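[Meeting: bench + compute handoff]

Bench side (C.D.) handed over the final construct sequence. Compute side (W.E.) agreed to return the predicted structure before the next meeting so the bench team could plan truncations. Sequence as handed over:
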Amino acid sequence: MPRSLKLYVTGVVTLSVVALVVATLVFPANPRIALSQSVFSASDVVTPSTSEVLLGVAFWVVLTLIASALPVRLPMGTHLAVSMATVIAAMSLGGPAVAGWVAAIGATELRELRGRIPWYGTLVNHAGATLPAILGGVAYVAIVGAAGHPDGDDLAIDLVATAVGSAVFLTLNTGIAAGVLALRTGQSFANVLGGDYKATAFNIFGLAPLGWLMALVYSIAWWATLLFALPLYTTRMASARLVEMRDMFTQTIGALAEAVDKRDPYTARHSQNVKMISVDIGRVMRVNTAELEALEWGGLLHDVGKIGVPDHVLKKADRLTREERMIMNAHPVLGAQIIEPVAKLAAELPIIRHHHEWYNGSGYPDRLIGDEIPKLARILHVADAFEAMTAARPYRMTPLSAEQALAELRKFAGVQFDPVVVDAFVKTHHADGVADAGRPAEPRQIPLIAQAADRMTAASVESATAAPAERV
């Protein structure tokens, strides 16, 4: 476990334990949590027994356990459970201590029981629910106390207090979970938070009024609370469907990319590998969540235009003629034309069209220069080149080593590649162990991917040395 993650987990767990102990001593359970109540009325105050209060707490613990059992795994790796609603209800009914205990025990998942989560993951999952629940409960108690209705007998005030307490609980809970994943995977906190919760934020915060309604119904007839199983289930399924739709879209794109790659046995999994390298470079460069997704899908689809390239050109082992080069160089434009009707892939169009532009302006199809080239296309260009150089091709059966390929990237930084992107690539795990490869590869081992004389470029570039990423 990285030191930063260890410190983070230790801090969250320690704060959670201290908060739970303090809350238990300072905030006794509100009588509203007692299971014996059938109707709550300020004019008919009944003091429940300790056993009835404990029974009420146990009731919400069980509901929370059920709601936590099968969380939805979000794209970036965090998990969403509808048990947030039951914790909010317990917070509104019983106060900070009750909310803390319900969250601490009820956050147990089947993954934990099956041993699929490391011990520190289990600790931080429970602590990440407990601490926010307690602090949300404190906010709730402060508001109803300041308004003079600590027993929650004013529905308007109770609703406002629950909304504020829920906001505190949900915000801290998602923040802690995103922090753990960011430290564990090396992603930025903003990307994890935006990637996992942007699409599901409505469902998450929609659990707050649902929790308040559950508490209200419980105060009238505890058994009627069980009727909320249906809306909780539908909320979970809505979040699951969002994730499934994205996964299905990605799988469909992947299948299309694989179909293109399989036209040539030498390019099997080329698009998948380019996608992974591009995303890793993007993470080093701290691009936002939407840009990471664009790199993922653009990486898969960058060569889709090769559908229109004849086999005798695509698989040719010898140097391409001028006419064949023109056919090959048209694939980025053709790929953009194929994808253009798909509105969901609008962000990927510049990547597909411009992933063969050169940093010095001698690339194709539009001869863009420097920052005129879309940033994500510059990222994918480096990933595409590295993958192509380290894989066998009909025109170059002996692939370059990772060290040789990295040397070529550095050699052509500022000419073919964006130097900033090359520097970012060096920091990825794909360059592990070869980051000091600053020298060009030995000539006898560099049958490079294409010669500059093959290119439809300016004369100054045609007289240059081999271009490392032309035919891929």
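W.E. noted at the follow-up: The chain has 21 helices and two strands. C.D. will use this when planning the next construct.
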